[in-house]
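G., the chain you wanted modeled:
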Amino acid sequence: MDNVFTDDDFSSMLGEMENEKAASSYKSPYWKPTTEGMQQIRLITPLKQFNEKLFYEKHRMHYVNGHAYYCLNQELKDKNGVVHQPCACPICAKSKQLYNIATKGTEEWNIAGSLRAKDRYVARIIVRGKKNQDGSDDETRPEFWEFGSKIHGYFFDQIKLGEVGNFLSLKDGRDYNLVKKGTGRNSDYSASCLSMKQTPVFTDVEKLKKLMEYLPKMEYSQLVEFVSADEMKKALDEMFNENSEEKSLETAVDSAIDSAINVAPTQAPTEEKSEDTDIDALLGMI
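Predicted structure as C-alpha cells:
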C-alpha cells in the first residue's frame, strides 16, 4: 500500500507536534534563570540618550490562558514609536465584574485575581557567565529582565536607606545575587540580594566597549505591543467558553453519579456482586 504509516512517519510526528506547541505558546522577550540556585546579574544605569530617570520601565500586564497582554488602560510608547493613550480595557472590566459578583475565596474570585492587571518592571542587565549557543563568552550582550513588585520594592528600599551606595554604578556598583527556588508560578526569589562586594561592571576595556555598542539598541519601547480590544475580548471568550465546557462536563458527571447513587435498589445486593461491577455501572452512565 502506498499510504502505509511507517515508524519513521510516527517518529517525525513528534517534531511537528513540538513545532506546533512552540508556535502556540507565548514567547517571552525577557531573560530569566532556567534552573534553581543563584545567578549573578548586573543592573544597567538609566540611559541618558533615551532621557531616562529610572533604571527600569514600568508597565501593567494581563495574563489570559498563558498569554500576556499589555493593559489598554495605561500610557506607553510602543515599538512603532506611537504613544498609546489610556482607554477602556476589556480584561480590566471582566476582572472587576467577577470581583463584584464573587465571594472571596471562590473560584470566580480567584479568576478575577488572575485577570487583574499586574505591575511589571523591565531593566537591562548583564548576566554573569553568560554563554552563547556555541559555548563562547557572551556576557557583554545585555538582556532585558522583567521582575515584579516584590523585587522592585527591595530596590526601592535599598535606594531609600542608602546603606549600599550607588549600586548601579558601572565603575564601583554591585551585582545582584538572584536566587531562584522552585519552578514556574511557584518560583520564589525572596532570598535574592545585592552583593556585599563592590565591583566594576567589566574590568576589560574591550568588553566595556562592546556593552556600550549594544545599549543604544535597547530602548524599552521595542518590547511594547498593544492588541486591540476585540482581540482581548476574543481571548476572554475562549477562556470562559473552555471553562463553561469543563463545568458542563463536570455537572453531567456529577448528575450521573448522583442518579446512580440515589436509585432505590429493587433487591438487596448479593455477596457475589463485586465492587468492580459497581464502578463499571457508574462509568457506563456517564
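Residues 229-262 form the longest helix (34 residues).

Shout if anything looks off.
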